[in-house]
Amino acid sequence: MYAYTGKILHVDMTNQAKRVQQMEPEFLKLYLGGVGLASRLAYDNVTPGCDPLGPDNALCFACSAFAGTTVPVGTKHGVASKSPLTGFIGDSLSGSHWSEMMRRAGWDGLVFKGQSPHWVIVFIDDDDVQFLDATPYMGMGAVEVQGKIRDRLGDENIRVSAIGPAGENLVRFASIDNDGRQVGRTGNGAVMGSKRIKAIAVRGTRPVRVADRQGLMEKSLPLIKTTQGPGTLKYRTLGTPANVLNMNAIGVLPTRNFSETVFEHAETISGEYLRDHFKVKAVSCSGCSIACEQWGVVRDGKYKGAKIGLDYEPLFAVGSNCGIGTLPPIIKLVEMADELGMDAMSAGVVISWAMECYEKGLLTKEDTGGLELNFGNDDAAVAVMEMMAHREGLGDMLAEGVKRASEKLGKGSEHFAMHSKGMELPGYDVRSLKTFAMGLAVGTRGPCHNRSLAYELDVKGVFDRFTATPGRGPLVVENENFACVLDCLVLCKFLRNCFDDFNAEVAELYTMTTGIELSPEELAEVGDRVCNLKKAFNIREGWTRADDTLPPRALYDPIPSGPSKGSVISPEELALLIDDYYEARGWTQDGMIPKSKLIELGLDDIAEEIGADAVVADAAV
Predict the structure, then answer these.
(1) Neighbours of 302 (CB within 10 A)
(2) SS3 of 560, please?
(3) CATH code for the domain defined by 233-424
(4) Backbone angles phi, psi at 130, to 5 degrees
(5) What is the pLDDT of residue 616?
(6) How would you classify residue 363: left for phi > 0, otherwise alpha for psi between -120 and 50, otherwise beta?
(7) How many other β-carbons are positioned within 10 Å of the β-carbon of residue 560?
(8) Does the pTM exceed 0.90?
(9) At 395, phi and psi to the nearest 5?
(10) In CATH, what is the architecture of 430-610?
């Protein structure tokens, strides 16, 4: 077997014991790696109906098939568990050197279950697993602690995945940091914290062997050259913050907790403004030839010294959505989120909800600990970010995520709690992006621009973004399956336009890497298989059609001004679009997966468990 090792390391945190699971090439081929393999490991190891923050949840890691090879932008890994935010599948991605080190240590995947009796660092040293006392590192930031652990172990080559105070305190949108990259969105950092794992350190000394070294090199070099061409120019010069002015221009930039879609200060928080006034360098993941992450530093003022790589999604969340119109506090807030170990997107949306509650009088100064939590008050936002990570005062409620926080506060605040399935919305107002509204509502991990890609169909004019006509389901499914294939391989989505024939070219790269024959048709089917696998996980955890929805603000409040003025997606329109999606997926009208569909995809065992007529488990969320 090439590239793959065929081995999954299972770690029982309760007993601090390990076992090794062998994987056959044909099984690995079904899921490829990354999100696909991590999700399958989660399906097989998460106890149905378990508490996501209890010992019966499983935290699962899986390498890309391309980790440590010459294939560009492929040294990444997937992570999956039952999400503390949604109670459904919580799949995430991250990149950089930790992924390669995991493969060099001899593992295709890792599964952590149970709960350690005390806080530990799990040190995986090739085949050896050690449990080191984490007491000296408690309360330490997710980025800072990685260097401290390398110093302790005396080897700069060791790579570390770590949580910050937010993960320790079980903030439901806590993230895991490795090499400055985040396993974000679904709360996997809280799952790691629930197992009392402060960090996972990995040292691998084995080479990564590929089936056709020369052939892979010959195919990789032209691809590397293409990734540095015009197709990725905007990512290399402005990064994803280029979206700020683009989304503002068409009236879909979430502003002041999604109450508006045009931000008057968009220019001064744009990618262009970042480049001209704050940029210090562009940073790439391990094995990446694009280097999209634009690092900015604050050189003076009260946030002097703050420094972070800015992407569009965190930028919108703590910027326009909180009414903050200058980059220094935005850079500071994202830096804080990363170091504290919180998903910056969720954190920003939660803060913006709290700001609206304050402005409407639903939260008082007494509730906020004396903070004037108005939109645009960056001092208050910085204070609340810290409070959430440590669950202090108002931060304890906000650390639960906007769904639970709004349910606890009540007073009508649920109407503008911007989430679906419990996960906060990404940076696109879908009231005038109706194809994307469908994509967000049906998302298995919650609303996600990375899993759906349907926003491209609206923004590029493939469909009229202001209408909700049927017939777009098949293309939404096709794009979702394609995104899923990228997540399983794992290849960065910025590569998606760098191929003439994606399925044929990537199937060849896979075969050259692993020695496993994979046809273009088989590659394409992986996306459908894994999307259905993740949906099957959700069905087993109690999903119903009612979970596929959007927040009331998107369904009932028309956009008040700007290029998209008057747009709203009514419940009837959303229902029509969801019907269209289910039909394209081959599901029932209730969104259940027929047994025949699961069997067709090679998921026979799952078909027997949750096929359309099966009984689902009682879910604990």
Answers:
(1) 12
(2) coil
(3) 1.10.569.10
(4) -120, 150
(5) 46
(6) beta
(7) 12
(8) yes
(9) -60, -25
(10) Orthogonal Bundle (1.10)
